[in-house]
Amino acid sequence: MNPLQESDAVAITRLLGDVAAQPADSNARRRSLMNGLTRLIDADAWAWTRLQLAGDKPPRQILMLHGGFDSHRLSKWAGAIEHPNMKPVTEALVTEAV
């Protein structure tokens, strides 16, 4: 892994400052942050989700923000994260979070 370059640290700091200074709601700030990070790392798409964890019930997605997906890729991604075969991948993360 390459060390963080000074120019990257400056760009990240500037992005965080710009997002913090926005007179916007939390979701607009999240979108701005993720769009900025996407540009910084030259990514194609991003997603921000929030789950509701309630005891022994399956996690329930209560927030999904995204950018850069076309409708086909978004549909595939959404189906993949809720697919039953993903349980081994997400179960440890959910258990740790509770």
Description:
A two-stranded antiparallel sheet has the order 1-2. The mean pLDDT is 87. Helices cover 55% and strands 15% of the residues. A hairpin with a 7-residue loop joins strand 1 and strand 2 (60-67). The chain is built from 4 helices and 2 strands; from the N terminus they run ααββαα. The longest helix is centred in the N-terminal third of the chain and has 16 residues, at 6-21. By secondary structure, the chain is an alpha+beta fold. The protein has helices at 6-21, 26-41, 71-81, 87-97; strands at 46-52, 60-67. It has 2 domains: 1-43; 45-98, no CATH class.
Provide tags for this entry.
alpha+beta, two-stranded antiparallel ribbon, 4 helices, about 55% helix
Rg over alpha carbons: 16 Å
Average pLDDT rating: 87
How many domains in all? Answer: 2
Would you list the SSEs in sequence order as H and E? HHEEHH
Structural class of the helices, strands and pairings? alpha+beta
What share of the residues does DSSP label as strand, in percent?
15-25%
| Total count of strands | 2
The backbone outline, from C-alpha atoms, is globular
Helicity, in percent? 55-70%
Distance between the termini: 31 Å
- Major sheet size, sense and barrel closure: 2 strands, antiparallel
Please state how the strands of the largest beta sheet are arranged side by side.
1-2
Spans of at least 5 consecutive residues with low confidence: none
Q: Helix count, per DSSP?
A: 4
